[in-house]
Protein backbone atom coordinates (compact mmCIF):
# COMPACT_ATOMS: atom_id res chain seq x y z
CA UNK A 1 0.00 0.00 0.00
CA UNK A 2 1.30 3.45 -0.88
CA UNK A 3 0.91 6.64 1.15
CA UNK A 4 -0.20 8.49 -1.98
CA UNK A 5 -2.87 5.97 -2.93
CA UNK A 6 -6.65 5.91 -2.64
CA UNK A 7 -6.40 2.72 -0.56
CA UNK A 8 -4.32 4.46 2.10
CA UNK A 9 -6.77 7.36 2.15
CA UNK A 10 -9.39 4.83 3.31
CA UNK A 11 -7.09 2.62 5.37
CA UNK A 12 -5.52 5.21 7.65
CA UNK A 13 -8.67 7.07 8.87
CA UNK A 14 -10.18 3.71 9.84
CA UNK A 15 -7.03 2.67 11.74
CA UNK A 16 -6.72 6.13 13.33
CA UNK A 17 -10.32 6.10 14.59
CA UNK A 18 -10.26 2.57 16.03
CA UNK A 19 -6.79 3.18 17.48
CA UNK A 20 -7.86 6.16 19.62
CA UNK A 21 -11.15 4.47 20.58
CA UNK A 22 -8.96 1.73 22.12
CA UNK A 23 -6.89 4.33 23.98
CA UNK A 24 -7.58 2.79 27.40
CA UNK A 25 -6.22 -0.62 26.41
CA UNK A 26 -2.55 -0.55 25.36
CA UNK A 27 -2.47 -4.25 24.41
CA UNK A 28 -5.40 -3.91 22.03
CA UNK A 29 -3.86 -0.75 20.55
CA UNK A 30 -0.62 -2.56 19.82
CA UNK A 31 -2.44 -5.58 18.40
CA UNK A 32 -4.30 -3.20 16.10
CA UNK A 33 -1.03 -1.59 15.00
CA UNK A 34 0.51 -5.02 14.33
CA UNK A 35 -2.48 -6.26 12.35
CA UNK A 36 -2.71 -2.97 10.44
CA UNK A 37 0.99 -3.10 9.62
CA UNK A 38 0.69 -6.63 8.24
CA UNK A 39 -2.32 -5.61 6.12
CA UNK A 40 -0.41 -2.54 4.91
CA UNK A 41 2.53 -4.70 3.81
CA UNK A 42 0.46 -7.62 2.49
CA UNK A 43 -1.34 -5.21 0.16
CA UNK A 44 1.84 -5.35 -1.93
CA UNK A 45 2.44 -9.13 -1.71
CA UNK A 46 1.13 -11.20 1.19
CA UNK A 47 3.68 -13.99 0.58
CA UNK A 48 6.58 -11.86 1.84
CA UNK A 49 4.92 -11.35 5.22
CA UNK A 50 6.57 -14.63 6.17
CA UNK A 51 10.02 -13.01 5.87
CA UNK A 52 9.12 -10.23 8.31
CA UNK A 53 7.54 -12.69 10.75
CA UNK A 54 10.50 -15.11 10.62
CA UNK A 55 13.01 -12.27 10.98
CA UNK A 56 11.03 -10.81 13.89
CA UNK A 57 10.84 -14.16 15.67
CA UNK A 58 14.58 -14.87 15.27
CA UNK A 59 15.62 -11.47 16.63
CA UNK A 60 13.04 -11.57 19.43
CA UNK A 61 14.54 -14.85 20.67
CA UNK A 62 18.13 -13.83 19.92
CA UNK A 63 17.73 -10.61 21.92
CA UNK A 64 16.52 -12.50 24.98
CA UNK A 65 19.27 -15.13 24.64
CA UNK A 66 22.01 -12.52 24.21
CA UNK A 67 20.86 -10.67 27.32
CA UNK A 68 20.60 -13.87 29.38
CA UNK A 69 23.99 -15.25 28.29
CA UNK A 70 26.57 -15.58 31.03
CA UNK A 71 29.64 -15.55 28.82
CA UNK A 72 30.82 -13.34 25.97
CA UNK A 73 31.20 -16.40 23.76
CA UNK A 74 27.56 -17.36 24.23
CA UNK A 75 26.42 -13.76 23.64
CA UNK A 76 28.42 -13.66 20.43
CA UNK A 77 26.92 -16.98 19.31
CA UNK A 78 23.39 -15.60 19.50
CA UNK A 79 24.44 -12.35 17.85
CA UNK A 80 25.85 -14.40 14.96
CA UNK A 81 22.49 -16.21 14.70
CA UNK A 82 20.81 -12.84 14.25
CA UNK A 83 23.42 -11.59 11.78
CA UNK A 84 23.42 -14.75 9.65
CA UNK A 85 19.62 -14.97 9.51
CA UNK A 86 19.00 -11.35 8.62
CA UNK A 87 21.95 -10.82 6.30
CA UNK A 88 21.24 -14.23 4.77
CA UNK A 89 17.73 -13.19 3.76
CA UNK A 90 19.06 -9.86 2.46
CA UNK A 91 21.87 -11.53 0.50
CA UNK A 92 19.63 -14.09 -1.18
CA UNK A 93 16.82 -11.76 -2.19
CA UNK A 94 18.84 -8.64 -2.98
CA UNK A 95 22.40 -9.63 -3.88
CA UNK A 96 22.49 -13.23 -5.10
CA UNK A 97 21.77 -12.40 -8.76
CA UNK A 98 24.20 -9.48 -8.68
CA UNK A 99 27.10 -11.66 -7.55
CA UNK A 100 26.04 -14.51 -9.84
CA UNK A 101 25.99 -12.21 -12.87
CA UNK A 102 29.30 -10.59 -11.85
CA UNK A 103 30.89 -14.04 -11.51
CA UNK A 104 29.59 -15.10 -14.93
CA UNK A 105 30.90 -11.89 -16.53
CA UNK A 106 34.31 -12.49 -14.97
CA UNK A 107 34.43 -16.08 -16.22
CA UNK A 108 33.41 -14.95 -19.71
CA UNK A 109 36.48 -12.73 -19.81
CA UNK A 110 38.59 -15.88 -19.39
CA UNK A 111 36.71 -17.72 -22.13
CA UNK A 112 34.57 -19.88 -19.87
CA UNK A 113 30.80 -19.67 -20.20
CA UNK A 114 29.11 -21.10 -17.10
CA UNK A 115 25.44 -22.02 -17.02
CA UNK A 116 22.98 -19.33 -16.02
CA UNK A 117 23.37 -19.07 -12.23
CA UNK A 118 20.71 -16.43 -11.61
CA UNK A 119 17.39 -17.07 -9.90
CA UNK A 120 13.97 -15.64 -10.63
CA UNK A 121 13.68 -13.70 -7.36
CA UNK A 122 11.45 -10.76 -6.49
CA UNK A 123 13.01 -8.17 -4.18
CA UNK A 124 10.74 -7.80 -1.14
CA UNK A 125 9.78 -4.17 -0.55
CA UNK A 126 11.47 -2.67 2.51
CA UNK A 127 13.75 -5.64 3.26
CA UNK A 128 16.83 -3.40 3.57
CA UNK A 129 15.08 -1.14 6.06
CA UNK A 130 13.53 -3.66 8.42
CA UNK A 131 16.69 -5.82 8.28
CA UNK A 132 18.81 -2.92 9.53
CA UNK A 133 16.19 -2.13 12.16
CA UNK A 134 16.17 -5.65 13.61
CA UNK A 135 19.97 -5.91 13.44
CA UNK A 136 20.40 -2.71 15.45
CA UNK A 137 18.20 -4.23 18.17
CA UNK A 138 20.38 -7.36 18.48
CA UNK A 139 23.64 -5.39 18.32
CA UNK A 140 22.52 -2.88 20.96
CA UNK A 141 21.66 -5.73 23.35
CA UNK A 142 25.01 -7.40 22.60
CA UNK A 143 26.78 -4.12 23.38
CA UNK A 144 24.75 -3.88 26.63
CA UNK A 145 23.25 -0.58 25.48
CA UNK A 146 19.66 -1.84 25.54
CA UNK A 147 17.59 -4.45 27.34
CA UNK A 148 15.34 -6.79 25.33
CA UNK A 149 11.58 -6.74 25.46
CA UNK A 150 9.77 -9.89 26.56
CA UNK A 151 6.51 -8.78 24.93
CA UNK A 152 6.27 -10.48 21.55
CA UNK A 153 3.50 -8.15 20.31
CA UNK A 154 5.56 -5.07 21.16
CA UNK A 155 8.61 -6.39 19.34
CA UNK A 156 6.73 -7.54 16.25
CA UNK A 157 5.05 -4.13 16.12
CA UNK A 158 8.44 -2.42 16.39
CA UNK A 159 9.74 -4.35 13.37
CA UNK A 160 6.65 -3.93 11.18
CA UNK A 161 5.20 -0.53 12.25
CA UNK A 162 3.58 0.56 8.98
CA UNK A 163 4.47 4.29 8.83
CA UNK A 164 8.16 3.45 8.42
CA UNK A 165 8.07 -0.21 7.37
CA UNK A 166 8.99 0.00 3.69
CA UNK A 167 11.29 3.05 3.44
CA UNK A 168 12.25 4.20 6.90
CA UNK A 169 13.24 6.15 8.86
CA UNK A 170 15.29 3.31 10.36
CA UNK A 171 14.21 3.65 13.97
CA UNK A 172 16.35 2.37 16.84
CA UNK A 173 14.74 0.14 19.43
CA UNK A 174 15.90 2.57 22.11
CA UNK A 175 13.61 5.22 20.62
CA UNK A 176 10.60 3.31 19.27
CA UNK A 177 10.16 0.28 21.56
CA UNK A 178 9.68 2.30 24.79
CA UNK A 179 7.00 4.32 22.99
CA UNK A 180 5.24 1.13 21.90
CA UNK A 181 5.27 -0.25 25.45
CA UNK A 182 3.85 2.78 27.21
CA UNK A 183 0.45 4.43 27.02
CA UNK A 184 0.11 7.05 24.28
CA UNK A 185 -1.77 10.28 24.86
CA UNK A 186 -3.49 12.24 22.11
CA UNK A 187 -1.77 15.62 21.82
CA UNK A 188 -3.34 18.43 19.83
CA UNK A 189 0.03 19.99 18.95
CA UNK A 190 1.32 16.61 17.69
CA UNK A 191 -1.84 16.18 15.63
CA UNK A 192 -1.45 19.63 14.07
CA UNK A 193 2.26 19.09 13.39
CA UNK A 194 1.55 15.65 11.92
CA UNK A 195 -1.17 16.89 9.57
CA UNK A 196 1.03 19.72 8.26
CA UNK A 197 4.01 17.40 7.77
CA UNK A 198 1.88 14.83 5.91
CA UNK A 199 0.53 17.54 3.61
CA UNK A 200 4.02 18.88 2.90
CA UNK A 201 5.23 15.32 2.27
CA UNK A 202 2.43 14.69 -0.22
CA UNK A 203 3.20 18.02 -1.91
CA UNK A 204 6.90 17.19 -2.16
CA UNK A 205 6.13 13.76 -3.63
CA UNK A 206 3.14 14.34 -5.92
CA UNK A 207 3.65 17.95 -7.00
CA UNK A 208 7.45 18.21 -7.16
CA UNK A 209 9.13 14.78 -7.42
CA UNK A 210 6.58 13.11 -9.70
CA UNK A 211 6.45 16.01 -12.13
CA UNK A 212 10.24 16.26 -12.34
CA UNK A 213 10.40 12.48 -12.91
CA UNK A 214 8.84 12.78 -16.37
CA UNK A 215 11.77 14.75 -17.79
CA UNK A 216 14.48 12.87 -15.88
CA UNK A 217 13.18 9.44 -16.89
CA UNK A 218 12.98 10.49 -20.54
CA UNK A 219 16.60 11.67 -20.68
CA UNK A 220 18.13 8.87 -18.59
CA UNK A 221 16.31 6.20 -20.60
CA UNK A 222 19.06 6.70 -23.20
CA UNK A 223 21.59 9.46 -22.44
CA UNK A 224 23.44 8.81 -25.73
CA UNK A 225 20.68 10.67 -27.58
CA UNK A 226 21.17 14.00 -25.79
CA UNK A 227 23.72 16.81 -25.52
CA UNK A 228 25.58 18.27 -22.54
CA UNK A 229 23.03 20.81 -21.38
CA UNK A 230 20.14 18.34 -21.60
CA UNK A 231 21.89 15.64 -19.54
CA UNK A 232 23.19 18.22 -17.06
CA UNK A 233 19.70 19.64 -16.57
CA UNK A 234 18.26 16.14 -16.11
CA UNK A 235 20.96 15.32 -13.53
CA UNK A 236 20.33 18.50 -11.54
CA UNK A 237 16.59 17.84 -11.66
CA UNK A 238 17.17 14.25 -10.53
CA UNK A 239 19.05 15.52 -7.48
CA UNK A 240 15.89 17.34 -6.45
CA UNK A 241 13.57 14.58 -7.59
CA UNK A 242 15.18 11.99 -5.30
CA UNK A 243 15.38 14.50 -2.45
CA UNK A 244 11.75 15.59 -2.60
CA UNK A 245 10.59 12.02 -3.24
CA UNK A 246 12.40 10.48 -0.28
CA UNK A 247 12.07 13.47 2.05
CA UNK A 248 8.38 13.51 1.13
CA UNK A 249 8.03 9.86 2.12
CA UNK A 250 9.83 10.55 5.41
CA UNK A 251 7.55 13.53 6.07
CA UNK A 252 4.45 11.39 5.58
CA UNK A 253 5.90 8.60 7.75
CA UNK A 254 6.88 10.95 10.58
CA UNK A 255 3.59 12.85 10.36
CA UNK A 256 1.51 9.66 10.34
CA UNK A 257 3.38 8.38 13.40
CA UNK A 258 2.67 11.65 15.22
CA UNK A 259 -1.05 11.23 14.62
CA UNK A 260 -0.76 7.89 16.40
CA UNK A 261 1.23 9.36 19.31
CA UNK A 262 4.74 8.34 18.22
CA UNK A 263 7.76 10.54 17.67
CA UNK A 264 10.25 9.45 15.02
CA UNK A 265 13.68 10.94 14.61
CA UNK A 266 14.27 13.50 11.86
CA UNK A 267 15.43 11.92 8.59
CA UNK A 268 16.16 14.95 6.38
CA UNK A 269 17.35 18.39 7.38
CA UNK A 270 17.74 20.48 4.19
CA UNK A 271 20.80 18.48 3.00
CA UNK A 272 21.56 20.63 -0.04
CA UNK A 273 22.33 23.53 2.28
CA UNK A 274 25.61 21.90 3.28
CA UNK A 275 29.13 23.34 3.15
CA UNK A 276 30.83 19.94 3.11
CA UNK A 277 30.02 16.35 2.28
CA UNK A 278 30.47 15.50 5.95
CA UNK A 279 27.70 17.98 6.77
CA UNK A 280 25.62 16.62 3.90
CA UNK A 281 25.63 13.15 5.47
CA UNK A 282 24.49 14.62 8.78
CA UNK A 283 21.43 15.95 6.96
CA UNK A 284 20.68 13.36 4.25
CA UNK A 285 18.89 10.12 5.18
CA UNK A 286 20.00 10.73 8.75
CA UNK A 287 18.75 7.41 10.11
CA UNK A 288 20.85 5.47 7.58
CA UNK A 289 24.01 7.59 7.91
CA UNK A 290 23.94 7.29 11.70
CA UNK A 291 23.23 3.54 11.40
CA UNK A 292 26.28 3.12 9.16
CA UNK A 293 28.36 5.17 11.56
CA UNK A 294 27.29 3.35 14.74
CA UNK A 295 27.08 -0.23 13.51
CA UNK A 296 29.55 -0.41 10.63
CA UNK A 297 32.15 2.37 10.83
CA UNK A 298 32.62 2.08 14.59
CA UNK A 299 32.55 -1.73 14.44
CA UNK A 300 35.39 -1.61 11.90
CA UNK A 301 37.41 0.48 14.34
CA UNK A 302 36.28 4.00 13.46
CA UNK A 303 39.11 6.49 13.91
CA UNK A 304 40.70 4.69 16.87
CA UNK A 305 43.49 2.88 15.01
CA UNK A 306 45.33 5.58 13.12
CA UNK A 307 44.61 7.77 10.14
CA UNK A 308 45.18 5.12 7.44
CA UNK A 309 42.78 2.69 9.09
CA UNK A 310 40.29 5.55 9.47
CA UNK A 311 40.37 6.18 5.71
CA UNK A 312 39.96 2.47 5.07
CA UNK A 313 36.98 2.31 7.40
CA UNK A 314 35.39 5.34 5.76
CA UNK A 315 35.79 3.83 2.31
CA UNK A 316 34.42 0.43 3.36
CA UNK A 317 31.48 2.08 5.10
CA UNK A 318 30.54 4.17 2.08
CA UNK A 319 31.08 1.32 -0.39
CA UNK A 320 28.82 -0.96 1.66
CA UNK A 321 26.41 1.94 2.13
CA UNK A 322 26.30 2.27 -1.65
CA UNK A 323 25.72 -1.46 -2.06
CA UNK A 324 22.91 -1.27 0.52
CA UNK A 325 21.02 0.91 -1.95
CA UNK A 326 21.07 -1.66 -4.71
CA UNK A 327 22.78 -4.64 -6.31
CA UNK A 328 24.54 -2.73 -9.08
CA UNK A 329 28.08 -1.52 -9.71
CA UNK A 330 26.70 2.00 -10.14
CA UNK A 331 25.85 2.13 -6.42
CA UNK A 332 29.35 0.98 -5.50
CA UNK A 333 30.82 3.80 -7.60
CA UNK A 334 28.40 6.25 -5.97
CA UNK A 335 29.46 5.10 -2.51
CA UNK A 336 33.13 5.14 -3.54
CA UNK A 337 32.94 8.78 -4.65
CA UNK A 338 31.46 9.77 -1.31
CA UNK A 339 34.05 7.71 0.55
CA UNK A 340 36.96 9.38 -1.30
CA UNK A 341 35.63 12.90 -0.71
CA UNK A 342 34.81 12.23 2.95
CA UNK A 343 38.35 10.91 3.46
CA UNK A 344 39.79 13.98 1.73
CA UNK A 345 37.74 16.28 3.95
CA UNK A 346 38.96 14.44 7.03
CA UNK A 347 42.55 14.77 5.81
CA UNK A 348 42.20 18.51 5.13
CA UNK A 349 40.62 19.00 8.53
CA UNK A 350 43.48 17.10 10.21
CA UNK A 351 46.04 19.53 8.73
CA UNK A 352 43.77 22.51 9.53
CA UNK A 353 43.58 23.34 5.82
CA UNK A 354 40.00 24.57 5.98
CA UNK A 355 40.83 27.18 8.65
CA UNK A 356 42.85 29.12 6.07
CA UNK A 357 39.81 29.74 3.90
CA UNK A 358 37.19 31.05 6.32
CA UNK A 359 36.73 34.20 4.22
CA UNK A 360 35.46 32.12 1.27
CA UNK A 361 33.62 29.60 3.39
CA UNK A 362 30.47 30.13 1.33
CA UNK A 363 32.14 28.33 -1.60
CA UNK A 364 31.53 25.10 0.28
CA UNK A 365 27.85 25.20 -0.74
CA UNK A 366 28.32 25.04 -4.54
CA UNK A 367 31.35 22.75 -4.23
CA UNK A 368 29.47 20.24 -2.10
CA UNK A 369 26.40 20.44 -4.32
CA UNK A 370 28.59 19.87 -7.39
CA UNK A 371 30.14 16.72 -5.88
CA UNK A 372 26.72 15.39 -4.90
CA UNK A 373 25.33 16.13 -8.39
CA UNK A 374 28.25 14.31 -10.02
CA UNK A 375 27.75 11.24 -7.83
CA UNK A 376 24.01 11.17 -8.61
CA UNK A 377 24.90 10.38 -12.25
CA UNK A 378 26.04 6.91 -11.13
CA UNK A 379 23.10 6.52 -8.75
CA UNK A 380 20.53 7.26 -11.49
CA UNK A 381 22.17 5.46 -14.42
CA UNK A 382 21.01 1.97 -15.38
CA UNK A 383 24.57 0.68 -15.61
CA UNK A 384 28.18 1.86 -15.58
CA UNK A 385 28.33 2.26 -19.34
CA UNK A 386 25.36 4.67 -19.28
CA UNK A 387 26.95 6.59 -16.41
CA UNK A 388 30.25 7.04 -18.26
CA UNK A 389 28.42 8.07 -21.44
CA UNK A 390 26.51 10.71 -19.47
CA UNK A 391 29.72 12.04 -17.87
CA UNK A 392 31.52 12.11 -21.21
CA UNK A 393 28.68 13.97 -22.86
CA UNK A 394 28.39 16.53 -20.06
CA UNK A 395 32.10 17.32 -20.21
CA UNK A 396 32.04 17.72 -23.98
CA UNK A 397 30.42 21.09 -23.19
CA UNK A 398 28.17 20.90 -26.22
CA UNK A 399 25.49 23.39 -25.27
CA UNK A 400 23.99 23.79 -28.72
CA UNK A 401 20.22 23.37 -28.90
CA UNK A 402 19.87 23.52 -25.10
CA UNK A 403 17.24 21.62 -23.19
CA UNK A 404 16.30 19.08 -25.83
CA UNK A 405 13.01 17.47 -25.00
CA UNK A 406 9.44 18.34 -24.16
CA UNK A 407 9.38 22.06 -23.30
CA UNK A 408 6.19 21.56 -21.27
CA UNK A 409 7.93 18.96 -19.09
CA UNK A 410 10.88 21.31 -18.56
CA UNK A 411 8.68 24.31 -17.72
CA UNK A 412 6.50 22.29 -15.36
CA UNK A 413 9.55 20.80 -13.62
CA UNK A 414 11.19 24.17 -13.05
CA UNK A 415 7.94 25.74 -11.86
CA UNK A 416 7.15 23.13 -9.20
CA UNK A 417 10.82 22.91 -8.18
CA UNK A 418 10.87 26.67 -7.60
CA UNK A 419 7.99 26.36 -5.14
CA UNK A 420 9.80 23.62 -3.21
CA UNK A 421 13.10 25.53 -3.15
CA UNK A 422 11.47 28.74 -1.93
CA UNK A 423 9.85 26.81 0.92
CA UNK A 424 13.13 25.08 1.84
CA UNK A 425 14.99 28.39 1.68
CA UNK A 426 12.41 29.86 4.05
CA UNK A 427 12.96 26.99 6.52
CA UNK A 428 16.74 27.41 6.22
CA UNK A 429 16.76 31.19 6.73
CA UNK A 430 14.34 31.01 9.67
CA UNK A 431 16.16 27.97 11.12
CA UNK A 432 12.83 26.17 11.38
CA UNK A 433 12.32 22.44 11.78
CA UNK A 434 9.64 20.99 9.54
CA UNK A 435 8.86 18.42 12.24
CA UNK A 436 7.60 21.17 14.54
CA UNK A 437 6.28 23.65 11.98
CA UNK A 438 2.59 22.93 12.47
CA UNK A 439 2.63 22.44 16.24
CA UNK A 440 1.28 25.93 16.94
CA UNK A 441 -0.99 26.15 13.91
CA UNK A 442 -4.59 27.02 14.60
CA UNK A 443 -7.41 25.01 13.06
CA UNK A 444 -7.97 27.84 10.58
CA UNK A 445 -4.33 27.75 9.42
CA UNK A 446 -4.46 23.98 8.99
CA UNK A 447 -7.63 24.29 6.89
CA UNK A 448 -6.06 27.02 4.73
CA UNK A 449 -2.81 25.09 4.21
CA UNK A 450 -4.76 21.90 3.46
CA UNK A 451 -6.85 23.67 0.81
CA UNK A 452 -3.75 25.18 -0.86
CA UNK A 453 -1.90 21.86 -0.92
CA UNK A 454 -4.90 19.94 -2.23
CA UNK A 455 -5.38 22.54 -4.98
CA UNK A 456 -1.71 22.28 -5.98
CA UNK A 457 -1.81 18.49 -5.94
CA UNK A 458 -4.83 18.52 -8.25
CA UNK A 459 -3.27 21.19 -10.48
CA UNK A 460 0.02 19.32 -10.88
CA UNK A 461 -1.25 15.78 -10.37
CA UNK A 462 0.99 12.98 -11.64
CA UNK A 463 -0.06 9.39 -12.25
CA UNK A 464 3.29 8.14 -10.89
CA UNK A 465 2.82 6.45 -7.53
CA UNK A 466 5.96 4.57 -6.54
CA UNK A 467 8.50 6.10 -4.21
CA UNK A 468 12.11 5.85 -5.44
CA UNK A 469 13.40 4.24 -2.25
CA UNK A 470 10.92 1.36 -2.46
CA UNK A 471 13.39 -0.36 -4.80
CA UNK A 472 16.07 -0.36 -2.08
TrEMBL record:
Native organism: Algibacter pectinivorans
Pfam families xref list: MBOAT
The UniProt record lists the keyword Repeat: no
GO CC entries: plasma membrane
Keywords: Acyltransferase, Cell membrane, Membrane, Transferase, Transmembrane, Transmembrane helix
Membrane topology (UniProt): Multi-pass membrane protein
Location within or outside the cell: Cell membrane
GO BP annotations, alphabetical order: alginic acid biosynthetic process
Protein name: D-alanyl-lipoteichoic acid acyltransferase DltB, MBOAT superfamily
Family: Belongs to the membrane-bound acyltransferase family.
A molecular function (GO) term: acyltransferase activity
Residue ranges of the TM segments: 5-22, 38-58, 78-97, 117-137, 190-207, 219-240, 322-342, 362-379, 409-429, 441-461
